[in-house]
């Protein structure tokens, strides 16, 4: 049965609720992106080819992870709604189901990814100078998918109930550990041989395993607001239906984003390893904007979801409006800063390659003007996801990446012969169009009508 208790996220000042969720989530996401940045820092000392090999693997790794990411988002939305409705029994049951489904999904994806590494790298166009390292890095990374997915679902469930600081502590610990393990396994020391590019993947898998173990222990002990149990880990068709309805469009959204990155890499590789390295550096700098934008979007999802669970639709709308203002103006300011420091940032990662520094800095400068619209899109997507209307986020992402960015990148760089600069310009143009479209759709209010119709979610069997 449901119990009655005060929920700070459905009462009081919205700005304090939003910031108390968003800031730890943003910090945790920035820390998680530090895995790639630390890898890039140490691999950059091996040369541009090492960075290019990992840069080539990253979109494909993201593609595989995105397939299961919808389940983790569904976990956040469902738990947030039950938390808002003060239904602890369904919070625990839904969480157990989410852990079970993610575990099975991660095993399948890990096996498929390991054996598909070589053909995938061949299809994406890896050159002879980097293909071996790319394949090895991808194979080793795929072995850690089970651990990575388990921690992701733990993190998503904690965010759904508003316990956002706990994942931060775990991520901070593992990032610090990864920073020490990276040079150890990349270069070797004493009895430990140097594995080169693969060493970066080895250190990441070790830290991911530690994080997943900690997360599972916390969930099974049940002292942090969620208690999962083996008895609740089975195929429940009603829960599967809800998870699929929310999670499938979210998986498609993430997958199309990852596929867009992958196809973009196909265009980039046609200009040589230096441009691949420049793109890799620029993409990692972009992650410093995307990651906090996603964090704000996730906080919006959780806060909107909890208020919808409490049937406070107007408050949910006010959450979205405030988040939109914070995102647009905040990330526009970050874009100005990124523009000013583009060259030293690029040189920090690859200090001895003027060509890569020049192109990487140009990529960052061209993108930076549109960061406010990128943030706006992520917050609007977070609002739609919190309302359970994940199809809207899916269509907006498809618009930005497949209808605009990828075709435009090809046309500008090849048909109009602008070269790599044409690829760089496709990013701000697509951000502008997708962010504007998302905001216009939000203003139509259709997502609220869907919520009012769909209250069956809260009448789950007990």
Automatic annotation (TrEMBL):
A Pfam family hit: MatE
Localization per record: Cell membrane
Annotated signal peptide: none
Record key words, sorted: Antiport, Cell membrane, Ion transport, Membrane, Transmembrane, Transmembrane helix, Transport
GO cellular component, one term: plasma membrane
Highest rank taxon of the organism: Bacteria
GO molecular function: antiporter activity; xenobiotic transmembrane transporter activity
Biological processes per GO annotation: monoatomic ion transport
UniProt topology in membrane: Multi-pass membrane protein
Sequence intervals crossing the membrane: 12-31, 51-79, 99-117, 137-154, 166-189, 195-220, 258-279, 285-305, 326-350, 362-380, 392-411, 423-442
NCBIfam families membership: matE
Name of the molecule in the record: Multidrug-efflux transporter
Higher taxonomy: Bacteria, Pseudomonadati, Bacteroidota, Flavobacteriia, Flavobacteriales
